[in-house]
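Thread: Adenosine receptor A3-like, structure

OP (GT): Posting the sequence first so everyone is looking at the same thing. Length is 360 residues per the record. Can we get the structure tokens written out before standup tomorrow? I want them in the notebook alongside the other entries.
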Amino acid sequence: MAAYHGTFENIWSRTASEETLLLNNIYQTSPSSATLIFGIIQTIMGPVAIVANGIVIYAIWKDPFKTLRSSPSNILIASMATCDVLVGLVCTTSQAILFFGAYTKSIGLTIFWIPIAFSIGVLLIGVSMFHILALTIDRVIAVVDPLRYKSRVTKSKMFACTLLIWGFFIFLILIRIPLQNHFYVHLLLVNLTFHIAIIIETVLSLFIILEVWKQTRNLKKKSLISVTFLRNKKTTKSILLILFIFKACFTPIFVADSVILACSACHSHLSVISTILCLSLVLTHVNSCLNPFLYAFRLPKFRKPVALIAKQLFCCRRHSKVYNDHTLEDLNANYKVKHSKERLNAVNVEPANTFVDTRL
């Protein structure tokens, strides 16, 4: 934030209170129309994130077809959905209050909410980001070592991974207390953590694409155009989409922070920079709205449970008798028979030494 101070002198001794006043100045300097629009967007995104991620949690919890709880990776998806529900419930609400406070020029309101929004945002956005990183690592293992995937990726390890992610970011927030008089030391740790995560996510995603491309090339050399070839093509598109959305949602906020911190001449364009900073905050919450569609709704194992739950939740009550216990058992049996036939066909068609994670 040296741009707003105009100098780097004693920047590492800036206190959290001084930073709060500085951020309040940023919000108050933002154009009124921009803060109003961003506040409305945050108000809309909150319910979307809550409902979409709530359906994912409910689907895994109920698991009507008995296909979701058996997958270790769904523990990560459930934990990430829980985090994204909190993002929609807490983060979007706090940011909307800040934007509307800036629009109405309520200085006291923004000063009160800035430290709360910062702490909650770092915790929940960081946890959500690192869950995405953990899911990418899970896919790398599935592509590189498919034969030992089930033995290497277990439910106990996934539980430990989720606890480690939550514990790390709780610790990252708590160390802000002893660093109250050295706010930028804490800010540097936060930015460094997120920058490293973005770099690792990019490298791993490109690595998966490279491995899939190698498998596809080997199939072409052997003249084997099979189900695996089509899955490889779909996997590449999925990874590229996930990588693009990940970078589009998370890169702007940390680039903006870095530019603001390093650019001492940027204070002459304060209104422009403050608008970009507010927009980048909104983008981090967009990711929480998109995660259910990227990691759950588009996957075959989630589609039928989600469709069934959506009908139970949103259809009229007079139709609820259709989904009694007997009907669920019949649907479950038909689902298992259908997928057993698909697996048998896949074994007869696909080469034994090729593997692509079908969840992508």
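GT: Both are above now. Quick notes for whoever picks this up: Residues 16-336 form a domain with the Rhopdopsin 7-helix transmembrane proteins fold (CATH 1.20.1070.10). Confidence is low (pLDDT under 50) at residues 1-8, 317-327, 344-358.
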